[in-house]
């Protein structure tokens, strides 16, 4: 009997405690809303300030246009013969410094990495003289289709860099600075399922973006072609020397076959402009901007202002 009464008493105490906790939570929520209501004008003011600032910021951001091209890795002619030779004489060819391996996919991936390299980027910028368009472009004049440069960085009339920087930097941006900026606005990616390659460029001028994509494709094909031709010429010279030094018929037959394949490589490289990448969908001058998303910037800025203002009101209240 006593045990039952004790259990009933404990249950009543638990229920009462639970009800008190609920009441405390209700009181805390009411107090929280009361504090927010008391500081509503401060919240409104800060939120409005952030909203206006975000709208002004979004409006002042220049339009960025994105041009892209769809490419397919070019098939390497004579790859069947090279594959057979690689299986039979791969060890001998590697000792001779002759490259028999590497299909079109491997060559395409190598070309993408070369495209992203510092050396290729530096050569590309200097060859096409695009440093002002890369580093000093501020906006784009649609009426004249010209790039408007930042007057604090570059004097377009005199073709002179006038930016003020501290050592070791100079008024004219270095290739290291240019590479950092260039690597942010270009993209080269491979679709894992189809194997297609997409090369894109973002710029304030849609014409510049389209031109750079076309130049990139042209230059990377030319660069990879020159690499393979140079390697094939060196390999041919070496194999020719070995032919002069050996009298064994079997080895001479192998060397003649290797020389033949290197000659094919040189021939195919010289007759093909699209050596590594074939253009499936060429780059166009975009008509619509790619970014910024001004509405999204304004919404996020307003939300940020609202959250910060509520936190400020709550912190002020609890600090009192």
From TrEMBL:
Keywords on record: Cell membrane, Membrane, Transmembrane, Transmembrane helix
Membrane topology: Multi-pass membrane protein
GO cellular component, as recorded: plasma membrane
Domain Tyrosine-protein kinase G-rich, first and last residues per copy: 278-317
Residue spans crossing the bilayer: 41-59, 295-315
Keyword set includes Transmembrane helix: yes
Principal location listed in the UniProt entry: membrane
Entry's Gene Ontology molecular function annotations: protein tyrosine kinase activity
Source organism, top-level taxon: Bacteria
Cell compartment(s), UniProt: Cell membrane
Domain Polysaccharide chain length determinant N-terminal: 25-127
Official protein name in the record: LPS O-antigen length regulator
Protein's organism: Pseudoalteromonas nigrifaciens
């Amino acid at each position: 009997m006593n045990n039952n009464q004790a259990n009933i008493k404990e249950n009543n105490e638990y229920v009462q405690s639970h009800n008190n906790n609920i009441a405390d939570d209700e009181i805390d929520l009411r107090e929280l809303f009361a504090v927010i209501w008391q500081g509503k004008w401060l919240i409104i003011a800060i939120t409005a300030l952030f909203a206006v600032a975000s709208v002004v910021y979004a409006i002042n951001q220049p339009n960025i246009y994105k041009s892209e091209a769809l490419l397919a890795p070019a098939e390497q002619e004579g790859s069947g013969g090279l594959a057979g030779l690689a299986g039979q004489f791969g060890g001998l060819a590697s000792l001779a410094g002759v490259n028999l391996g590497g299909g079109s996919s491997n060559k395409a991936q190598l070309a993408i990495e070369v495209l992203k390299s510092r050396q290729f980027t530096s050569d590309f910028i200097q060859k096409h003289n695009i440093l002002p368009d890369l580093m000093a472009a501020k906006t784009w004049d649609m009426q004249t289709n010209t790039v408007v440069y930042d007057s604090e960085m570059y004097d377009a009339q005199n073709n002179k860099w006038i930016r003020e920087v501290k050592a070791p930097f100079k008024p004219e941006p270095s290739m290291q600075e240019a590479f950092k900026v260039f690597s942010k606005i270009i993209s080269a990616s491979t679709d894992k399922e189809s194997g297609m390659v997409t090369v894109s460029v973002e710029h304030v001028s849609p014409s510049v973006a389209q031109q750079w994509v076309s130049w990139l494709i042209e230059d990377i094909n030319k660069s990879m072609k020159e690499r393979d031709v140079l390697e094939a010429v060196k390999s041919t010279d070496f194999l020719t020397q070995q032919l002069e030094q050996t009298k064994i018929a079997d080895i001479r037959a192998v060397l003649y076959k290797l020389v033949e394949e290197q000659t094919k490589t040189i021939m195919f490289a010289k007759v093909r402009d699209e050596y590594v990448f074939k253009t499936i969908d060429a780059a166009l001058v975009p008509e619509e901007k790619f970014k910024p998303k001004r509405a999204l910037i304004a919404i996020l800025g307003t939300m940020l202002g609202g959250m910060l203002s509520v936190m400020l009101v709550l912190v002020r209240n609890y600090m009192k």
